[in-house]
Amino acid sequence: MSQGFTPPAALVVEGDSRVQETLRPALEALGVSMTVEHRPDAAVALLARRRFDVALLALDLGSTDGLALMRALQARSPGLPVLFLVPEGARDRVARAIREGAADCVATPIVPEEVGARVSAALAAGRAARDRALLEALRTALLVSGPAATVLARVADAARAAMGADVAAVFAFEDGRLARVAGDDAPEPLAAVAEEAVAKGAPAVRTGEGRTALSVPVLIQGATSGALAVELPGPPADAGPLTLLAARAALVMAEERSGSRLRGAVGASLGRLAIQIAHELNNPLGGLKLYTSLLERSLAQEGGRGLELARKVARAVDELAARVAEIRAYERGGAEGPLGQLIESCVDECLARGTSGGRGGEGDA
């Protein structure tokens, strides 16, 4: 759901008021809003609270080098296009600025037509880069497979990348309450907007202090089962990518639920089978145990190899009785040890084959 058109925003870090005065009308002619900061540290702090589509920086900013500021800004906002404002006597530094990661350079004094052309190109390149990152994030999240926890963690990662967010989290109902199940630790605004999206069954937005918390519900067969939420600097953004990623989260949650129900059904069937097997084995085992005990007593006075063999048979019977006890324990839900692990491993493999549509490698039965 689109939150409305937000015009591109430019961050300008330049101390010369004459440059600022000529830049503003040139940017406004492009429909670009302009925010000026004089101090590099203030510019970096501002970028933590607001989103900008392009930055125009002076090469020399007092004690701070413009290239160092560019690196700080791009560390805070990866992919941010940066253009340097280059005075007449510093044209030899243009090549280095480009090598270091600048999108372009604009000569001063300002020529409005040049600003328009270069800023327009930088904005287009920035949009293309964001679109590529969005598509890659969506591709990764949609194609990932594995346990539910792994898939949901990738969904949160993709949401963070696609939205340019600082934090992202997946929420689901656990014991009747909404809880974070994947992604970053959720600050209070993120949890609150997730609750709101679940209550509405529709995207929810909360803004404050230059930041936006945005959430969309996770719907399974029309019922709200959780939420995907992000927190990012600046005004509300388009929730479309989140909606796609929430659908991927819904798919894996539904598969996990289906797997839990199937595991319960398989467990009940195995429990009934365990009762029958234990019953069939108990009577002959009881007889064997009695016979080996009598045999041991009979051979006790003679000693020798016969007694040793009788005791080995008794130990083997005891071991078989222990396996039967493990089978009965599985029926009661308490199987442990190698047999319990083997049964659980077989159940997991059967469920995995079932949820993947029975597709397997060569030699699958």
SSE map:
Blueprint: E1 9-13, H1 17-28, E2 33-37, H2 40-47, E3 54-58, E4 60-61, E5 64-65, H3 66-76, E6 82-86, H4 94-100, E7 104-107, H5 112-143, H6 148-163, E8 167-174, E9 177-183, H7 188-200, E10 204-208, E11 211-220, E12 223-233, H8 240-300, H9 304-331, H10 337-355
Helix pairs in contact: 1-5, 2-3, 5-6, 5-8, 6-8, 8-9, 8-10
List keywords for this structure.
single chain; 12 strands; 365 residues; Beta-Lactamase; Rossmann fold; five-stranded antiparallel β-sheet; 19% strand
Commentary on this structure:
This protein is α/β, with parallel strands linked by helices. The chain has three domains: 9-134, Response regulator (Rossmann fold, 3-Layer(aba) Sandwich), CATH 3.40.50; 136-255, GAF domain (Beta-Lactamase, 2-Layer Sandwich); 259-355. The chain has ten helices and twelve strands. The strands form three sheets. The chain has a five-stranded parallel sheet, sandwiched between helices. The protein has a five-stranded antiparallel sheet with strand order 9-8-12-11-10. A two-stranded antiparallel sheet has the order 4-5. Helix 2 runs parallel beside helix 3 (66-76), helix 5 runs parallel beside helix 8 (240-300) and helix 8 (240-300) packs antiparallel against helix 9. The longest helix is centred in the last third of the chain and has 61 residues, at 240-300. It is elongated and about 115 Å long. The two termini are 47 Å apart. Mean pLDDT is 82; it is low at 357-365.
